[in-house]
Design brief:
This protein has about 350 residues and is α+β, with helices and mostly antiparallel strands. It has twelve helices and eleven strands.
């Protein structure tokens, strides 16, 4: 794609990269941009060694571009999900600086977040086709329909942060994510409710841009010019290894064509507020990974911080779940891995 310089979205450097441990991770401008325009793009939240470890593991798992195996892989979705057998991938999912950043965006405490998605998938550059579900040149869309059973709340009451962490560089892989920044309360790109998109209501789900817009022109011709205006307003994430774009379920965006023969690795994550139970967890329950020989999930619960446990749905110390019996029972299950039950004992002692 030939993209003018003024259409690129460049990452800012997170405060975490400047050594401010225990302090806000995102600058105030990044938080304001996410809340008002619907996105922010940052670098420096994750340690490079973790990023490189995930890349090495993923490249060993996924086929190289141009092979028959690569051609057979659907380039959207993956079985590479949290918790995986790659410790670095799991550490990135629960990175404390990431949880702090999400909490800043939602104006919550980290222990008031819940993880609903963490998966890594490959996208291979190839010629764009016009198949209705082709993923190379996506239609402009919002992500809420397959994340929530309802509809996002009004703009000033965000419920979730969705994000893409890139393990590749746009100069080599192409395929920058396109975003339509919201511009104020009365932005014509963001009428209420957000339903004029394939897959919502009685409209069929169609992924490919050409096919989707042809379908909508046939079904809802009054939307044709408006939909075209969304494409005209696109801006593009200039990602590199370690870049994180954080966006909302109700912001217009899409995937654009990759460089032919290239491979892009992308890690999708989503966190919601604890009370937004209508936002679904996209994967099987985290406890489903118990019984594995490495005892990963059990060891994780035993050694995680209170915030990390909370985002997985583990009861917090002030939960009514805790009593002398449940404390003793959980200690019997996880104590062998070093779980400290002191915070839970202290909480019931102070009731």
């Amino acid at each position: 794609m030939d993209i003018p310089d003024d259409r690129w979205l460049d990452a800012t450097r997170s405060l975490a990269a400047q050594g401010s441990d225990g302090q806000p991770v995102l600058a105030a401008d990044d938080v304001a941009l996410w809340r008002e325009a619907g996105y922010c793009v940052v670098d420096g939240i994750f340690d490079e060694a973790l990023i490189d470890s995930v890349i090495d593991h993923a490249l060993a798992r996924f086929p190289a571009p141009g092979t028959d195996d690569a051609a057979a892989i659907a380039d959207f979705g993956s079985e590479y999900v949290f918790p995986s057998n790659n410790p670095a991938f799991n550490d990135i999912t629960l990175e404390p600086r990431l949880l702090t950043a999400v909490a800043q965006l939602l104006d919550r405490n980290p222990n008031d977040l819940r993880l609903t998605q963490s998966d890594l998938w490959p996208k291979y550059g190839r010629p764009v086709t016009a198949g209705r579900q082709d993923n190379q040149d996506q239609r402009i869309h919002v992500d809420y329909p397959n994340h929530t059973l309802a509809h996002p709340s009004p703009w000033h009451r965000p419920e979730a942060v969705e994000m893409i962490l890139y393990y590749s560089d746009v100069d080599a892989a192409g395929g920058p994510t396109a975003v339509v920044p919201r511009s104020g309360r009365d932005d014509p790109a963001y009428p209420w409710p957000i339903v004029d998109t394939p897959g919502v209501g009685d409209l069929d789900y169609v992924n490919d841009r050409e096919s989707a817009e042809a379908y909508l022109t046939d079904r809802r011709p009054e939307l044709t010019d408006w939909r075209q205006s969304l494409y005209e307003r696109e801006r593009y994430v200039r990602y590199r290894k370690g870049t994180l774009v954080m966006y909302r379920h109700d912001v217009w965006h899409r995937g654009t064509p990759m460089t032919d023969g290239a491979l892009r690795l992308a890690h999708n994550m989503t966190f919601r507020t604890a009370e937004a139970e209508w936002i679904s967890t996209l994967h099987s329950g985290w406890a489903w990974k118990a019984y594995r020989p490495n005892k990963y999930i059990e060891r994780l619960i035993a050694t995680a911080s209170l915030d990390q446990r909370a985002v997985l749905g583990f009861p917090q110390p002030d939960s009514p779940y805790w009593c002398e019996e449940t404390i003793a029972a959980v200690e019997a299950r996880h104590g062998v891995f070093g779980m400290d039950m002191t915070p839970y004992r202290d909480a019931i002692a102070s009731r």
